[in-house]
Design goal:
The chain contains two helices and 31 strands. The chain has 498 residues and is mainly β. It has three domains: 199 residues, no CATH class; 157 residues, no CATH class; 117 residues, no CATH class. The strands form six sheets. A 14-stranded antiparallel β-sheet has the order 16-17-18-19-20-21-22-23-24-25-28-29-30-31, with helices on one face.
Length: 498
């Protein structure tokens, strides 16, 4: 076959395999997520976090940023915690989020004994406030990471009670989120915060200057996210939220439509058992799980979990059955043990996800000496026109030592033919901002057969298997552009090695 005839297939192979080589921390949707799309969400292909969003309501606003309410899930399991002699959740699980894309909350870290008192003033304390952070509506934290930015308040006295005074105090500073998101922080009066997004919105304000009128756009339109009912500029409160997590048998969320009618969503919670064996000892407890969401139109979502009274059943999400029919299934493995908290595990990871007739498999290996994690992702089988067999394409992600950010990604045709290696280099200040992304190509590619779309059936596939590769291709393109914008925001240069 001529090179010209092979070229389209080569381009398909490249677009299929260019899944963005970056890694998530399993909460929220940070920029370095590798989203493997599934119905109602995605699985982070590098660390196995399952992220789901079930829409409840959306109300248009003057600033084109609608007020929304969603039921959101990120991985969680229940693990025995020696510190409390009981089971505790290791991740967010199901919860309600409500607000606009600019909504969130903020805090600043305060150490009341951050510094020693000056000589001659042995009594009292020196308080240090630093590292302000904004947590957006998805639960992603955006933090100032700069040891030179802090406030200092000296409350020190001599033995006779003479104060040192405030002459050396630092009362304010301005900072920029270290993740390149563009959030800016203004700290005043030692601990009061104003936070603005990259597009100029005031997204948080604890100074009292604007009351609770935030997030607020540059034209003064706002939603009072910190007030019950979240009234907007027109004093509308469309959501009455009675469910934030499973604490009782059932709860409701009511959405008021523009015609004054209301629509009720009912969340059903069920008590089920979790269990864990640690060093030969069996532990068990009862926890409350969201098992169903009844929608206003009479349809519903249902959920099942890994539960049981004996052995190890940590309560990980197993299935999601959707209103229109069809089920998304998961197998779960425990999170990587955290030495800092004894037997508690970090949020569990998906070992497989099945939907639309195909199964993705994920496996994880951690280097015990430097905590580097290698994740191997195997796609559902596809027909390979060269070997005339079904093959499972493989992708291998390797994290930065001691951190969860991705360092390298290797893309294979099948399980052994390496097509591409992508290496990300980060800045030297510990902020993990990518300063160089090197794409290495091999000169010879195996042509890939095109696959059909999983819902429409469009495509040129030879059989009826769904187009899981197309899912990866489309998400890669969106995420690649997001990553390039991030690098341009930092005014760094991308090095492309062909």
């Amino acid at each position: 076959m001529s090179l010209l005839k092979l070229l389209p297939r080569i381009l398909v192979a490249l677009s299929v395999l260019m899944l963005a080589p970056t890694l998530s921390r399993a909460q929220g949707v940070p920029w370095y997520t590798i989203p493997l799309p599934i119905p109602n969400g995605f699985v982070d292909a590098a660390i196995g976090n399952v992220h789901l969003e079930i829409p409840i309501g959306s109300v248009p606003q003057r600033n084109r940023d609608p007020l929304v309410a969603d039921i959101v899930y990120d991985n969680t399991q229940y693990a025995y915690n020696y510190n409390v002699s009981g089971f505790t959740a290791t991740g967010p699980g199901f919860r309600t989020i409500a607000g606009t894309t600019h909504s969130g909350t903020a805090a600043i870290s305060v150490d009341p004994y951050g510094l020693s008192c000056p000589p001659g003033y042995p009594n009292g304390n020196v308080s240090i406030a630093s590292s302000p952070s904004f947590v957006d509506i998805q639960g992603t934290a955006h933090t100032v990471v700069n040891s030179n930015l802090y406030t200092k308040q000296v409350n020190c006295y001599t033995t006779s009670g003479t104060p040192y005074g405030s002459g050396s105090d630092i009362t304010s500073f301005n900072g920029l989120a270290a993740d390149g998101s563009g959030y800016t922080f203004q700290v005043s009066n030692y601990t009061q915060l104003q936070v603005r997004s990259a597009d100029g919105w005031l997204v948080y304000d604890s100074t009292g200057v604007t009351g609770f009128n935030w997030p607020m756009d540059t034209n003064g339109n706002y939603v009072q996210s910190a007030v019950a009912g979240m009234p907007d500029t027109l004093n509308r409160s469309p959501f009455q939220i009675g469910f934030y997590s499973c604490a009782s048998a059932s709860k409701t969320i009511t959405v008021r439509a523009s015609d004054g009618s209301t629509q009720t969503h009912t969340m059903t919670c069920t008590s089920q058992s979790v269990s864990q064996i640690i060093s030969g000892t069996q532990y068990a407890a009862t926890e409350s799980f969201l098992t169903g969401i009844a929608l206003p139109d009479g349809t519903s979502y249902s959920f099942t979990y890994d539960t049981g009274t004996t052995g190890t059943h940590l309560g990980g999400l197993l299935t999601v059955t959707r209103p229109a029919g069809g089920t998304v299934s998961f197998t779960q493995v425990p999170g990587i043990p955290s030495l800092a908290v004894g037997a508690i595990n970090l949020p569990g990871r998906a070992a497989s996800v099945t939907f639309g007739g195909g199964t993705w498999n994920l496996s994880y290996v951690q280097n015990s000496s430097n905590l580097q994690v290698t994740t191997t992702v195997l796609s559902p089988p596809r027909y390979d026109s060269v070997s005339n067999t079904n093959v499972n394409d493989k992708t291998v992600f390797t994290s930065v030592p001691y951190f969860s950010y991705n360092q390298t990604a290797q893309y294979y045709s099948g399980s052994s033919t390496l097509l591409r290696t992508v290496t990300t280099t980060y800045d030297s200040n510990g902020n993990f901002l990518p300063v160089a992304i090197l794409f290495g190509f091999l000169p010879i590619f195996q042509p890939h057969a095109e696959l059909s779309h999983p819902e429409t059936g469009d495509g040129l596939h030879r059989d009826s298997r769904p187009d899981h590769q197309d899912h990866v291709r489309r998400l890669h393109e969106a995420h690649k552009h997001q990553r390039l914008r991030r690098c341009r925001h930092r005014r760094t240069d991308l090095q492309h090695t062909l």
